[in-house]
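Much of what follows relies on a compact textual record of a protein's fold. Here is one such record, which you should read through line by line:
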Amino acid sequence: MPTIGASITQVFTEIGVARAGEDLEPENMALGLTLWNRLLDLWNANGRAVYSEVFNDSLTLTPALSPHTIGPSGTLVVSVRPTRLRAVQLNLGSSTFVDVNVRDAAWYSEQNTPAISESVPTDVYYKPDWPNGRMYFVGVPSTAYAVRLWYETILAAVAQTD
């Protein structure tokens, strides 16, 4: 698969700005990279056009914490915060995974005691704040469980060597 830089060079060659087999001028490469990332930003702003689906099984919950934040500076550190949770599972040990129901704001607002501590949470409400989203577990986990997440996220900016 070609790099972003190779793709930009190919586009500039096809429109006659560069010659086949020659390196692209640095200012043209910078312009192409800016335009590429602007296109990704437009797709991300659309909200329905394009997203990246991520599976992450290397995160650990903090006992007695509510909410857990997820993003570049969250308690659960990922490069880009999720826009939507698709599925959550807790690892109870010995490769025993239990599903956690992903709920919406309406469901969460009806809970009388959502912050009660439980050994194993049964539900989670996700609020995609910026720059970190917030995960409200019902009940709040009392153990540092490993967690597996499937989530959607925006497309991140690219570099020439990607």
User: Anything to note?
Assistant: The CA atoms of residues 8 and 32 lie 6 Å apart. DSSP finds three helices and ten strands in the chain. The first strand starts at residue 52 and ends at 60. The chain has a mean pLDDT of 88.
